[in-house]
Amino acid sequence: MTRQAGELELRQLSSTFVELCRIESPSGSERRCAEFVTAELETLGLEVAQDEAGALTGSDCGNLLTRVPASRAGAPPRSLMLCAHLDTVPLRAPVEPVLVDGVYENANEGILGADNKAAVAVLLALARHAVREGSPIDLELLFTVGEETSLAGARAFDANRLRSDFGYVLDHASPIGGVIVGSPTQFLLEATFRGAAAHAGICPEQGRSAIVAAARAVAAMPLGRLDARTTANVGTIVGGSAVNIVPERCELLVEVRSLDDVRAEEVVAELVDRIHEAANLPECDCDVDVSVERMFAGYALSGAAPAVKAAEGALRACGYEPERISSGGGSDANALIAQGFPTVNLANGTERNHEPGECVAVEALEGMLDVTLALLDEVAALPAGVAV
């Protein structure tokens, strides 16, 4: 394969990635990152539109959308959307990217932010290339907020604004080549236990511990990997006010994911039963309120879909062997597909996302830029009238 990106573009790609990682942007605080992205795009002469997702999701900014028109003579009437998210999971430590043996990692004991700033950097590099060298098709770039909080930004985005035939999200932390053809449904359960406060040293018998009730519920729950397609996890437990007070309130936050919708609903029902049973134990005797929300829907893509075929063609053109994957992770693709917009999530070569020690190789950054450039050519080559 002949690399389309030049050496200057590759150097800019790495420097942009480092700058992005240094901008702290946990979910809800994406404005500084959005301002950086906007400035980069406007420098290229592109217009950037921001929607109202911030007000809807609790973020300090909305989703960003820009368009790069085709500039090559005889360009086919095709348009392609590419998406990355601006937010990260919460930081445990400041981010100071360092390059160790060709791999970027955080010098401190915390996440790097490669999820998903590796993809953001790639899309900015793609925009530079498309403006300077021309694009065979129209291009739309979408940068979302709140992806790490159950795809909040993408769920608030109006997919009817997109003009593209289909799109790609670059947001799966696995080796380049992965084409995500299956993704789970996610349910979120919130349980609030209410007991009775009492002095823990003088009259504990008069109290009813909400924390004990919550602990009994958690102990009775099926958690972790329940089968090859299903997981459940208690994410947070918050309760109590002081060590000398029997706690009268405790809150649990639990998620269930499954590639099988029916199985997901069965597990949710079982967890709700365990919560109520624990609250009603004689030694607990607590009231409990439970809410269940379906955060996003799962999907299964056909291997014959043009978007899947185009992705596989682009990967092969860049020397990668495509692998169709059913993942336990969600992405903005879930939210866009739910709105009827065909989308494929692609692995982007990042490693250990959401963990201290998260990293990405320079080779992976450059490889994903190659893949996105090849995607433009693959989509441009699709026969006229191909249904998507």
Compose a concise summary of this entry:
By secondary structure, the protein is an alpha+beta fold.
SSE diagram, text form:
Elements lengths: L6 H16 L8 H13 L4 E3 L2 H5 L6 E5 L10 E7 L11 E4 L2 E4 L7 H20 L4 E7 L7 H5 L9 E7 L5 E6 L1 E10 L15 H11 L3 E4 L2 E10 L9 E10 L2 H19 L7 E10 L2 E2 L5 H12 L5 E4 L5 H7 L4 E5 L11 E3 H19 L8
Parallel strand pairs: 3-6, 3-7, 7-16, 8-15
Antiparallel strand pairs: 1-2, 2-6, 4-5, 5-17, 8-14, 8-16, 9-12, 9-13, 10-11, 11-12
Helix pairs in contact: 1-4, 4-10, 6-7, 8-10
Structure, explained:
By secondary structure, this protein is of the alpha+beta class. Helices cover about 35% and strands about 25% of the residues. The strands form 3 sheets. Strands 1, 2, 3, 6, 7, 8, 14, 15 and 16 form a 9-stranded mixed beta sheet that branches. A 5-stranded antiparallel beta sheet has the order 10-11-12-9-13. Strands 4-5-17 form a 3-stranded antiparallel beta sheet. The longest helix has 20 residues. The mean pLDDT is about 95.
Label this structure with key terms.
single chain, 388 residues, five-stranded antiparallel β-sheet, 10 helices, 33% helix, elongated
The main β sheet shows up as: 9 strands, mixed
Number of helices: 10
**Overall 3D geometry?**
elongated
Would you state the CATH class of the largest domain? Alpha Beta
Specify the structural class. alpha+beta
Low-pLDDT residue spans: none
CATH structural fold name of the largest domain: Aminopeptidase
Give the termini distance in whole angstroms.
27 Å
Give the number of DSSP strands. Answer: 17
Mean pLDDT: 95
